[in-house]
Amino acid sequence: MKILYINSLYAPDIRGGAELSLKLLVEGMQSRGVDVAVLSMVEDGGLRSSTVDGVRVYRAGLKNRYWPYGTAQPPAYQRLLWHVKDRENRDMAAYVQEVLEEEQPDLVSCHNLAGWSIAVWDEIHVRGIPIVQVLHDLYLLCPNSNMYKNDTACKGICMECRLLRLHHQRKSAQVDAVVGISQSILQRFIDENYFANATTQVIHNTRQIPNPGPARTRVEGSPLRLGYLGTLSKIKGIEWLIETVKQLDFPVHLRIAGKGKETYQAYLASISEGYPNIEFMGYTKPSELFPEIDVLVVPSLWEEPLGMVAIEALGHHVPVVANKAGGLKETVKEGINGLFCDADRPGSLAGALERLFTNPTDYNRLSAQARESVAAILDKDRMLDAYQQVLEATLTKDTIKPHR
Fold first, then answer.
1. Which CATH number fits domain 2-206+379-396: 3.40.50.150, 3.40.50.2000, 3.30.565.10, 3.40.50.800?
2. Do domains 2-206+379-396 and 224-373 have the same CATH topology?
3. What residue spans define the domains of the chain?
4. How far is Cα 93 from Cα 99, in angstroms, rounded to an integer?
């Protein structure tokens, strides 16, 4: 069996959880005897190939107005024009055609398609090659991939998104199988009548996290060490977290690990000025942050497809306080491994943090239960087995039990 994986980026160019999960998946399938190759993008140039940790990787120069993964923020009109071309970018489809001719895969597994566009489906489908689409974000519903606008999570698809996604629902019928990394994200597409001819499956992503040893404990009155890990952007709720910490009346220290657009990073630094208990760490490996914190806060204002960072924290015995939305509801369990807050009630975040500070017994119980609560998700073979079943069933046209 030969599989071609298509994603916007691939290692070592890792910008988020999708790239980490894809590398683990690709290398895992190769270790099981599957012939794999990857097609991803780079900022400019033509098509080139290399080997990354034993995997054949093709990289195609993006043919659009700018590289969307830079630190600068293009003006609004440029962003709109970028998205207009990204509806169906035939220039990028030419790369797909070239790699399909070279590799002759039995099946193509599509992941994040920002930059590639749904034009890749046409190139694959016309050759009679089965397509598996893995949903890591909301790109196929929303050009911004997050359904978040005017500082509010969208309840439905706005007119602008409908225009920029005019043909996506119809063309999704070309997909043979669809995998959601959570039930939450899969359901969003089912509700919009996408993937009419596809079998459906939920497969949670995983991480390889060695057991870090005994769970941590807190004693009454000790400062509460908070952590944030991820992209620094408004949609991630980082401002909500900073403003909450500034108002707390008990000893707390917040470590913020991650990077964002330069102008936004400067703004966050300005609103944190004068608060030495708020520390910006820049890019930091999870394994370096988690031993230094008691609680991970995931205050995302949009519906995170899964919230892998929460799973990573729990795997390190770190309880999580999270906004109750999206895929986070499938991993964070109230009173078992963490607590929920509600973005519609901003004071709820302070309440959750205060509860953990004032009740060390409750905290110690959550910490003791954290890793076990995600033990199944951390099982790499569980994920690989599930994907292998999807691939084999799609190739043989067997029916996978739907998870609707």
1. 3.40.50.2000
2. yes
3. 2-206+379-396, 224-373
4. 10
The answer to whether 295 and 225 are in contact (CB under 8 A) is yes
Q: Give the tens place of pLDDT for each residue, 47-84.
A: 999 999 999 999 999 999 999 998 888 999 999 999 99
Residue count (the chain): 404
Q: What is the CATH architecture of 224-373? A: 3-Layer(aba) Sandwich (3.40)
Is pTM beyond 0.70? Reply is yes
Question: pLDDT digits over 204-262, tens only?
Answer: 999 999 989 999 899 999 999 999 999 999 999 999 999 999 999 999 999 999 999 89
